[in-house]
């Protein structure tokens, strides 16, 4: 057995080690240890104000922890500026839409390719050689994402004219255009109807299976959490109260008392 290969395979994609975050006198997170393993779908759940978005902001370097460290793909990213993460393979969607509403669907997705285009200023100005080839490859990749997300019929429409659910799908496409190893999804199905929610759940599974992307998501919709997650972390008042397989976490008395409050099969 190749023990080095086994060790590499078992290494987490994302790891929080003793992470705490204070905002003045408010302790938003306290001593969080969490490992997101390659190829899994990890959901972070908890009541409003539990610290979920703060955890995501630490993972994407929008905030720095007060104590502890964050490691991505084997590298300590605790002190990195946020803009350095895209090239390393971390992409994120946000709870509130962050699309360019006056631009077309395809142009929105192409903006996600920016971090992967390494051509110089002169080449970009003249649009020849490597720059032209990079642009062709970017457009081919963007078209593949359009097809993957089943939005071919709206590819030339301004995003602002689309339904909320389709705009969220475009935002997902832009994140995929960054060719991530890890995709952070912040309440992806919030505000969607049942059909749109089922579509997104299917796409998340396909992203993991077909594109080999690890997914970490904040989600309030317990149906999607229990159906597609491999691993669930539950936060309450900034502390981790459970961490494990969905079937085990959903039966944890502390989780039921703090968050679920009812059978997870019921409509929340």
TrEMBL record:
Specify the superkingdom. Answer: Bacteria
**What name has this protein been given in UniProt?**
ABC transporter ATP-binding protein
Which Pfam family name is an example for this entry? ABC_tran
Query: Ranges for the ABC transporter domain?
Result: 14-262
Q: Which keywords does UniProt give here?
A: ATP-binding, Cell membrane, Membrane, Nucleotide-binding, Transport
Select a single GO molecular function from the record's annotations and give it: ATP binding
Instruction: Give the matching InterPro entries.
Output: AAA+_ATPase (IPR003593), ABC_AA/LPS_Transport (IPR051120), ABC_transporter-like_ATP-bd (IPR003439), BCA_ABC_TP_C (IPR032823), P-loop_NTPase (IPR027417)
Organism the protein comes from: Polaromonas aquatica
């Amino acid at each position: 057995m190749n023990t080095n290969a086994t060790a590499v395979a078992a290494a987490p994609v994302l790891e929080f080690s003793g992470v705490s975050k204070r905002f003045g006198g408010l302790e938003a997170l306290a001593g969080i240890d969490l490992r997101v393993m390659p190829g899994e779908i990890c959901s972070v759940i908890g009541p409003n104000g539990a610290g979920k978005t703060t955890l995501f902001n630490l993972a994407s370097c929008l905030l720095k922890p007060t104590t502890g460290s964050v490691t991505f793909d084997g590298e300590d990213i605790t002190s990195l500026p946020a803009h350095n993460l895209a090239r390393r393979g971390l992409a994120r969607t946000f709870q509130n839409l962050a699309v360019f509403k006056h631009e077309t669907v395809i142009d929105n997705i192409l903006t996600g390719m920016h971090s992967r285009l390494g051509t110089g200023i002169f080449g970009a100005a003249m649009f020849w050689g490597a720059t032209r080839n990079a642009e062709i490859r970017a457009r081919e990749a963007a078209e593949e994402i359009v097809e993957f997300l089943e939005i071919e019929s709206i590819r030339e429409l301004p995003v602002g004219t689309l339904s909320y659910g389709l705009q969220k799908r475009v935002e997902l496409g832009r994140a995929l255009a960054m060719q991530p190893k890890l995709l952070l999804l912040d309440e992806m199905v919030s505000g969607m109807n049942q059909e749109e929610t089922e579509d997104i759940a299917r796409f998340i599974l396909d992203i993991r299976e077909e594109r080999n992307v690890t997914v970490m998501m904040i989600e309030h919709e317990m149906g999607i959490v229990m159906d597609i997650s491999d691993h669930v972390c539950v936060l309450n008042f900034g502390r981790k109260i459970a961490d494990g397989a969905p079937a085990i976490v959903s039966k944890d008395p502390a989780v039921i008392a703090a968050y679920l409050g009812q059978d997870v099969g019921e409509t929340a």
